[in-house]
Design brief:
This protein has 231 residues and is α+β, with helices and mostly antiparallel strands. It has helices at residues 2-22, 42-48, 74-87, 92-105, 158-163, 226-229; strands at residues 28-29, 50-57, 62-71, 110-117, 134-139, 144-145, 149-153, 172-178, 195-202, 205-215. 29% of the residues lie in helices and 29% in strands. The longest helix is centred in the first third of the chain and has 21 residues, at 2-22.
Length: 231
């Protein structure tokens, strides 16, 4: 009976390992430059830049934290604007202006759209002083950075629900911004990093969301977009 139990446990473990391998999250690239996206590409791009994890207390089978986050990278922002412009029937000039402004935001901060759920609504409000969780931007080079701002989206509207469909009435939604450099001028995401991510930590445990990098161009000089946008 003991051998049978061990075999069952090993089988479950192998199945989980295979499942995790099969569902490996895609690597991403921080390179800038023009994109050839159409409105129908948006959900695929959203999926590439989105990560989700849950922190379970096994002893109580309690979901203490379930978090989904999208890194609003240059690549993501390009796809977002194309989809938004299509949905709202923007003119070419309006789209150009929006794209210019949106891509500029990718240079002055690392921004994430975050939606999370926990077993206590008050404790999962990241803007409260008594929140159960703090969030940090991290990478594999040992950098750890506190947010420069956290904005609570009190009632996600049609934009959030359409463009970030994991937003629900059961979750808090936030826009979290981190600086791109430290006060002494170092990059908050190292040019040598193999991954970067978000760490949520508190008395009930910790969980990390990671974006594995193909090649990090974050420290490269940022290029003007006017010529690319006018296409």
């Amino acid at each position: 009976m003991r051998c049978l139990g061990q075999s069952f446990f090993v089988g479950i473990t192998l199945a989980l390992a295979i499942g995790l391998t099969a569902c490996a999250e895609p690597q991403v690239n921080l390179a800038t430059g023009p994109r050839e996206y159409t409105a129908s590409d948006y959900l695929q791009v959203l999926d590439r830049w989105t990560r989700k994890k849950s922190l379970i207390q096994v002893s109580e089978l309690d979901d203490v934290l379930s978090v989904t986050a999208t890194f609003e990278s240059w690549d993501f922002r390009w796809a977002y604007v194309i989809r938004y412009a299509s949905d709202y029937r923007l003119t070419v000039e309006q789209r150009r202006t929006l794209l210019e402004r949106t891509l500029a935001e990718a240079h002055d901060g690392h921004r994430f759209y975050v939606a999370l759920y926990g077993n206590n609504v008050r404790w999962t409000d990241l803007t409260r002083a008594d929140s159960s969780w703090i969030v940090r931007l991290i990478d594999d080079d040992g950098n750890e950075t506190a947010p420069s701002s956290i904005e609570l989206i009190a009632r996600p509207g049609p934009l959030e629900r359409r463009y970030f469909p994991y937003s629900t009435v059961w979750r808090h939604a936030f826009r979290v911004r981190f600086p791109t450099t430290t006060p002494d001028g170092r990059a908050t995401v190292s040019p040598k990093a193999k991954w970067f991510g978000l760490r949520f930590a508190g008395a009930e445990g910790h969980q990390e969301l990671r974006w594995e990098l193909e090649g990090n161009d974050a420290a490269a000089p940022q290029r003007r977009t006017a010529e690319m946008i006018s296409r």
